[in-house]
User: What shape does this take?
Amino acid sequence: MLQVLANGIRTAYDVAGDGPDVVLVHGWMASKRYWQEASRKLPGFRVWTPDLYGFGDTEKPGNGYTLDGYAKFLEGFLDAVGVKKAAIIGHSMGGAVVAWTAIRSPQRFWALGLIDAALAGITGPPPAWSAEPVMRLFMRIADTSRGFGRMTIKGMFGVREPESRIILEEAQKADVRAAAASGTMMSKPTDWGPLGGLKVPALVVYGENDFLVARGMDKEIESLLKVEADYLEDCGHLPMLEQPKTFYHTLAAFLDEHKPK
Assistant: This one.
């Protein structure tokens, strides 16, 4: 694990490989560990996997959990590590973060990927379980009963050991304030119209059994980006963990097709 100061925030990240730059951004209650197969599965690229602030091993400030805040953070991360232009790929909440970053700084990206993405303001009111008191209770239960936590995760996602352990361990690292505030962030009305004006190639991927993203989200994103989504069979919300072979084959083919010449 490496560290760098991004917009004044001590940021944990991993990097591996050589070639055009690719930045992979995790989702809610997750971390860079979700992408641990990426560098091996994406040969010919330099793959960066930062932890967003509030999650993983990155610093956990008390505020700033907004789309603009996260976009500025990613821009600061690229500046800090010296990346001038990259493909940016985001999963779940990370999909909203990278989409907003691409809208703010389109010149910095040569491709955009939205993986089981949830765009803020399309999902409706924040779920009751994202409230801070509920999050504190959930994390206390998960911390004191890891067997129960892993069993719950296995029921929610198509994962086994060691993937279920990764999900639980990284969820326990999340700051409660970050989890609650970013959950609220995802409910705020947001103008995604400019997404349709981006002039970069876009990839949209969903697990065909994903029940965590609001119904119709995929069609909204398809309409905005004017692309057809790829749907992965026997896959829910976590394609990089549930169906890594198929997922990374799809992502690698997209990146190979559109990488800078």
About this structure: The chain has one domain: 2-125+189-258. The first strand starts at residue 2 and ends at 6. Residues 20 and 75 are 17 Å apart (CA to CA). Strands lie at 2-6, 9-16, 21-25, 46-50, 86-91, 109-115, 202-207, 230-232.
